[in-house]
Design a protein that fits this description.
Elements (H helix, E strand, L loop, with lengths): L3 E7 L9 H5 L9 H5 L10 E4 L8 H8 L8 H8 L4 E6 L13 E8 L33 H19 L3
Antiparallel strand pairs: 1-3, 1-4, 2-3
């Protein structure tokens, strides 16, 4: 399959949104049978955008597509006019979300197919050498606590007392 974004106008009443933003928020709406509407076996709903155009709050659909997808080039002006004239709900589907070519039923109308940008190379990169993880350095030992000063004072007094006891006080 080519690297293409398909834009469909939905001819069914749709009031839900299923976009990157709603997925990030953890929203999981009950989606209509989109695969059936597009005439495919499976559709990867993690890659699609489904929303009511009124949700764009004055932004044109062509501007939204430019912001949400990386296109290979500008949208042709006649296609922009068609996109921006739509009302109701739309479905934006990249090729890699489809199990095969579409054959939309009466629930969806194909409006445009826009080429998405591709990598500028197709070289295969060599695998990186696997190296062993270096052994961890032993954790530094905690310094032993210094004996308390009071202990030295007590030992010193005991030595002085012993000297006085054995040699007497003069």
């Amino acid at each position: 399959m080519t690297n293409t974004l398909h834009v469909f106008a939905l001819n069914e009443p749709v009031t839900i949104s299923h976009t990157s933003l709603t997925r990030q928020k953890g929203e999981t709406p009950d989606l209509p049978p989109l695969a059936k509407w597009l005439g495919v076996d499976v559709i990867d709903t993690d890659k699609i955008e489904l929303f009511v155009l009124d949700d764009l709050s004055g932004m044109t659909l062509s501007d939204y597509i430019h912001l949400a997808f990386t296109l290979e080039g500008p949208i042709p002006s006649d296609t922009q006019i068609r996109l921006n004239a739509l009302s109701g709900a739309v479905l934006l589907v990249p090729d890699d979300a489809l199990s095969g070519p579409t054959a939309p039923g009466p629930q969806a109308t194909a409006i445009a197919s826009l080429p998405l940008a591709r990598a500028d190379h197709d070289a295969s990169l060599p695998k990186a050498d696997v190296t062993e993880t270096p052994a961890r350095a032993p954790a530094p030992r905690e310094p032993e606590p210094a004996p308390p000063v009071a202990l030295f004072a007590l030992i010193g007094m005991a030595v002085v007392a012993a000297i006085i006891f054995f040699f007497g006080w003069r």
